[in-house]
Design brief:
5 strands, Beta-Lactamase, five-stranded antiparallel β-sheet
Length: about 210
């Protein structure tokens, strides 16, 4: 990958920069552009390093290398949206759990010219979020587990993600919209039953799909 000074002018509007960051990978120049938030997730200050594919690969947890890069590689070939849940080892040797979600940018001739998206550090938030959901809705999950599992399956198929990431997406959107997970799950399953969800690779992100259901 070519080396280029990172674009530090990108901002994570309304988001905690130490937990969330935006990125862009330009295919023709093979360069990455990180917002300050991604530098922080990796344990750096903006300008400490130049983001490259090799740098990112070195910081992926050894057991998650294939998982972290396979979906992005497929998006470069196919132009589909992507989402992946994996671990990194930051500059201070701390293991962090992150979710990367994004989409392909197509050029005039239809080829992929860039990848754009966000990375969210869920190391601390995931356990807390799941525990809150279980504590507040034990009966809800027990009585409506089937439809929630179906909804997770829909997201797994649409975005090539794992079930845990699918559940986290549902739970986060339920909190953001103040809608119970089971209601969101029912809407998603119903929409999938009438082919009202976007087809795989249509350019929509998980949050876009779930937001349209509420």
């Amino acid at each position: 990958m070519a080396t280029q000074t990172a674009d530090d002018d990108r901002r994570d509007d309304g988001l905690d920069q130490h937990r969330t960051g935006s990125f862009r990978y330009d295919v023709p120049s093979e360069t990455w552009h990180w917002s300050p938030g991604i530098f922080h997730i990796y344990g750096f200050e903006p300008g400490d390093v130049v983001p490259t594919t090799d740098l990112m690969r070195r910081h992926v947890h050894p057991e998650d290398t294939d998982l972290a890069f396979s979906i992005g590689d497929r998006a470069l070939r196919s132009g589909e949206s992507f989402s992946s849940h994996f671990r990194i080892v930051d500059n201070e040797q701390r293991v962090r759990e992150v979710i990367a979600v994004g989409h392909s940018v197509l050029g005039d001739e239809g080829g992929v010219t860039a990848l754009e998206g966000h990375v969210v550090d869920i190391t601390d938030a995931e356990a807390t979020l799941v525990q809150e959901q279980v504590t507040l809705a034990v009966d809800d999950f027990r009585d409506h587990r089937a439809v929630i599992e179906q909804a997770k399956g829909v997201l797994v198929q649409l975005f090539s993600i794992d079930p845990d990431t699918a559940f986290l997406a549902l739970a986060r959107m339920s909190q953001a919209r103040n809608v119970k997970v089971r209601y969101l799950a029912e809407e998603l399953v119903e929409a999938a039953g009438r082919d009202a969800t976007p087809t795989k690779g249509a350019g929509s992100e998980i949050t876009d799909v779930l937001a349209r259901l509420t």
